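Anyone up for a design puzzle?
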């Protein structure tokens, strides 16, 4: 099998999205009480403090800081399923006794260091091949995954403290890049996970402020396409864009946005695809 081509992404565009979501997180966290920091997020076993500790840990790792030694065997915890989750949990436990305000200062410190390191990267370093959570790809692709991860976690925190994003807050480079990242997986979701048969043409219509139209065609293999060559889709899925990202991330839907999922064409296949949307490890 031929190696898949590396994803070349515009550095200034991706960093604008990453820095924007860090700014948004900073503003959100600045307004939390110590009680808010203890609120449970939609992620099993994690409160708001744990979500922020995870973000701090990942960015620290990318600065070359080794994860702290855990006080227990974290791999035995019920919500820990893989080596990445083990590393995450080491940071979560290490920072669990920190106050909310202390954790916010840690977040600001690591974000400032990462901003400088990323801004100083050369184009060669940005486009160089590296290991990413989705396999070998460019460092730039890895940073788009970081936008997606941080943006999803912002929504997790907002769900925990019951401060959902407004329509205006949902529009911007972070949500756009997060959808770009999800879109890049849709062939895998439709073809490999949902096993849509050859000849399938699946149309996703995302509504609301996180709007997008995505098309996946199955012709030998499933892949995202610009159009269906004049043919109609064989299945359609229409859903609020934020809710789509929640399902793709294995999260419960946001209670303040439209809940309905409209299925058209081959509704059984469309429903099966919705059931298999979660691709996050």
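Challenge accepted. My sequence:
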């Amino acid at each position: 099998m031929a190696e898949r081509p590396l994803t070349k992404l515009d550095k200034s565009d991706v960093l604008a999205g990453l820095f924007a979501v860090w700014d948004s997180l900073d503003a959100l966290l600045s307004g939390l009480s110590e009680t808010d920091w203890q609120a449970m997020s939609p992620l099993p076993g994690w409160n708001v403090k744990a979500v922020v500790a995870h973000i701090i840990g990942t960015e620290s790792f990318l600065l070359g800081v080794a994860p702290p030694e855990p006080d227990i065997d974290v791999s035995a915890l019920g919500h820990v399923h893989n080596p990445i989750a083990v590393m995450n949990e080491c940071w979560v436990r290490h920072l669990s006794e920190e106050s909310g305000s202390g954790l916010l200062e840690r977040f600001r410190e690591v974000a400032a260091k990462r901003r400088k390191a990323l801004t100083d990267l050369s184009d060669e370093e940005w486009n160089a091949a590296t290991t990413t959570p989705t396999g070998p790809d460019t460092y730039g692709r890895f940073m788009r995954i970081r936008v997606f991860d941080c943006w999803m976690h912002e929504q997790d925190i907002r769900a925990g403290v019951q401060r959902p994003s407004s329509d205006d807050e949902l529009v911007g480079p972070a949500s756009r890049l997060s959808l770009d990242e999800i879109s890049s997986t849709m062939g895998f979701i439709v073809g490999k996970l949902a096993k849509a048969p050859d000849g399938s043409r699946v149309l996703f219509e995302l509504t609301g402020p996180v709007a997008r139209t995505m098309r996946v065609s199955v012709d030998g293999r499933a892949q995202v396409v610009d159009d269906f060559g004049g043919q109609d889709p064989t299945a359609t899925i229409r859903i609020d864009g934020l809710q789509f990202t929640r399902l793709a991330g294995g999260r419960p839907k946001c209670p303040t946005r439209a809940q309905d999922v409209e299925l058209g064409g081959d509704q059984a296949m469309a429903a099966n695809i919705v059931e298999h949307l979660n691709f996050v490890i």
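A detail worth pointing out: Strands lie at 129-132, 135-138, 201-207, 212-219, 221-225, 235-240, 261-265.
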